[in-house]
Specification:
The chain is built from 7 helices and 4 strands, in the order βαααβααββαα. It is mainly alpha-helical. It has one domain. It is globular and about 55 Å long.
């Protein structure tokens, strides 16, 4: 698990790189290939919800998110992000996602969340519903719905379908479209981590595009590596 000091300004880091070449037609059956993951994630997200409730009371009384519970929920988010990246959240790789809650540094999609040593007792009462409402509105437009841990429609689904069609015709994934899709996914994951009480850092209303979160001057789009 990454320590908080590694990226204090960005507690939620979402990175990815585009695998090449990608199959022109594999995306047509990825919904079927990913079914075993969807089944496992269905139960993992039930556990994620239970853990989040337990963490709520732990933070309320101790100002701490129990480390074991935190690591489990980070693992669920990592697993979900890898499956989404492989399937219809991005279609950025043809490498089948591992069945793992761990970091998997060799997989092309990664997620890290800095463990918070202290969390606000006051914020835990309001951030997951009241403060996050503006973010929920934006994310709802991006993803449409949220089932068994991942997106089921919205702008992201439309853009990913466009990318799939272009890939089928040209054998190439347009860079600008890839950068936009990664930026939308990054925004969603930041909001999920915030609403799940894993950080007190409010998600920025900013589209950090591309696969890399390396520091840059200003807050412009990030290029994918």
């Amino acid at each position: 698990m990454t320590t908080p000091s590694a990226f204090p300004d960005r507690p939620v880091r979402v990175t990815a790189h585009l695998d090449t070449p990608l199959s022109r037609w594999l995306w047509l059956v990825k919904w079927l290939l990913a079914v075993p993951h969807y089944v496992v994630l269905f139960f993992l997200w039930i556990a994620f919800s239970v853990v989040s409730v337990i963490a709520f009371f732990a933070i309320l009384f101790t100002e701490r998110y129990p480390r074991t519970l935190f690591d489990f929920n980070v693992g669920v988010l990592r697993w979900s992000w890898r499956v989404a990246y492989y399937s219809y959240g991005a279609l950025g790789t043809d490498r089948y996602p591992p069945f793992s809650l761990g970091e998997e540094p060799d997989y092309p999609a990664r997620l890290d969340i800095a463990y918070p040593e202290r969390l606000s007792r006051g914020l835990v009462l309001v951030k997951w519903w009241l403060l996050a409402i503006p973010q929920y509105i934006v994310v709802g437009f991006f993803v449409g719905g949220f089932h068994a841990g991942w997106w089921s429609g919205g702008l992201l689904a439309v853009l990913t379908l466009v990318a799939a069609v272009i890939l089928a015709v040209t054998e190439k994934y347009p860079k600008d479209l890839y950068d936009l899709i990664l930026g939308l996914n990054r925004w969603v994951l930041r909001v999920v981590a915030y609403s799940a009480l894993m950080t007190d850092a409010y998600p920025p209303f900013r589209l950090d595009m591309g696969g890399s979160e390396e520091s840059r001057a200003g807050t412009g789009p990030q290029g994918h590596r």
